[in-house]
Specification:
Layout lengths: L1 H35 L1 E13 L2 E12 L2 H21 L7 E3 L3 E4 L14 E11 L2 H8 L3 H5 L15 E3 L3 H26 L4 E8 L4 E4 L12 E14 L1
Antiparallel strand pairs: 1-9, 2-5, 2-6, 3-5, 4-5, 7-9, 8-9
């Protein structure tokens, strides 16, 4: 009985001490907040902008049992692709014809003798242009080349069509951050008015990171979308008076 009573007394003393310590910690935090008299807010800004640069890799391939035949077919395909692009107004400065590649499948270390076609070749024509709309239109007009026998690659670089970029990012960055700053200050002023206080000077600010995504619902920009959605959340702390 004595041992049980002693244990109960110790537990009560310890519990009271913990509760009292918690009271002082809570009171100190509250007083700190009252003494600090500041408000932290976040400002949001979003903007949809059009891409200003396009990169389009047109990959094509051929296969056969004669090296020369594959190489010649690839060279002819490359000329067809270049002619198509020039007809649509793209200049030499916007086009790059990359070297052709022909591989002997039987010359590989792991080659098997039952390959249906011995030689496999590929080629690429690269388009780099600030004329985004023209690139997008050309990407939808490849039927004549396909009808002419050009076999475009279904895999690898450029298989998904043009990639669109936003190279004038810095021109948009400043106005976007300014909008986030205005948004945060409006929120802070509203809170201060409701609290019966006045908004004081800015104590600290963090502009945050501007995130770029496409307009297809993804949280990242994979380059496929011509429309880029810019979003920034900035953090600010103001004094209250």
């Amino acid at each position: 009985m004595v041992n049980n009573a002693s244990r109960l007394l110790v537990a009560l003393v310890v519990g009271a001490g913990v509760a009292l310590a918690g009271f002082f910690v809570s009171g100190g935090l509250e007083r700190f907040r009252m003494a600090d008299r500041s408000i932290a807010v976040k400002g949001l800004a979003e903007k949809d902008v059009e891409a200003d640069f396009a990169i389009w890799t047109l990959g094509f391939r051929r296969a056969g049992n004669e090296f020369a035949g594959v190489q010649q077919a690839l060279a002819a395909d490359r000329e067809k692709v270049l002619a198509f692009l020039k007809e649509r107004g793209f200049t030499e400065a916007e086009l790059e014809a990359r070297p052709l590649a022909v591989q002997d499948l039987l010359a590989r270390d792991y080659a098997q003798g039952n390959v249906p076609l011995r030689f496999n070749g590929s080629g690429q024509v690269l388009v780099r242009s600030a004329r985004v709309a023209e690139v997008a239109q050309a990407a939808l007009a490849l039927d004549p080349l396909i009808q002419a026998g050009v076999q475009f690659s279904a895999e690898g670089e450029g298989a998904g069509g043009p990639r669109y970029q936003l190279r004038g990012f810095n021109d948009i960055k400043a106005p976007l951050l300014a909008e986030a700053t205005r948004n945060a200050r409006e929120q802070a002023e509203k809170f201060a008015a409701e609290a019966g206080a006045r908004l004081g000077p800015l104590k600290s600010a963090n502009q945050g990171v501007i995130r770029i995504s496409g307009d297809d619902g993804n949280d990242f920009d994979d380059g496929r979308s011509r429309t880029k959605r810019l979003r920034v959340v900035s953090s600010f702390e103001y004094e209250l008076r």
